[in-house]
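Researcher: Please predict.
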Amino acid sequence: MNLTNLKKAFILTIPVLLGYIFLGIAFGILVVSSGYNVFFTLLSSSILYAGSMQFALIAFLKENASLISILVMTLFINSRHMFYGLTLIERYSKFNKLKPYMMFSLTDETYALICSLKDKEDYNSNTILFLVSFLNHMYWIAGGLIGTLIGNVLPINATGIDFAMTALFVAIVVDQYKTNKDHFPFYTGLFIGIASLIILGPDNFLLPAIILSVIILIIRNKKYE
């Protein structure tokens, strides 16, 4: 690992840095407004490291949800990460001892960024991929700690602040749509997502929609190979 690789990884992750810092700040403020402290922020951001689930966790705890309910919702909310990992098994096979961390640190934004580097040889080394994952993790932790500090110092109304994660995800999708000529995955996810939402409802549509979308994309990719 050298400064050149670190510089490359940092430049690549600047968009995620900007998003994670502000999202982390939003999360930190929400933590304080919900009656928790900096240790909750640090532990959840370091060990859980799942933006949408961390926002949801606060709501579950405020409602005194059971541990079983929290575990089930965690499975549903983060189920998409299993599919992310499946598509990167071959690329991550050479990481050896670092493989568990690489899989753990695979967020929506990190996955999108790593996939965009697939055809860029200068940015596709194991070192770069690790640094991208690690830096993104650190950005999220830093944002949360900053937000906790701000929440303790300034009286801020946290109403609606949890929408920040949704906004970032929409921005990533729009950026992927603009930068990729093949829009089939976008429309596949869009139509299947809407259809699943209508048929199954907002509480049950996510996992079936992801599974069906992945199956369709795998079949399509095999036809083009």
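Model: The chain has two domains: 3-177, 181-225.
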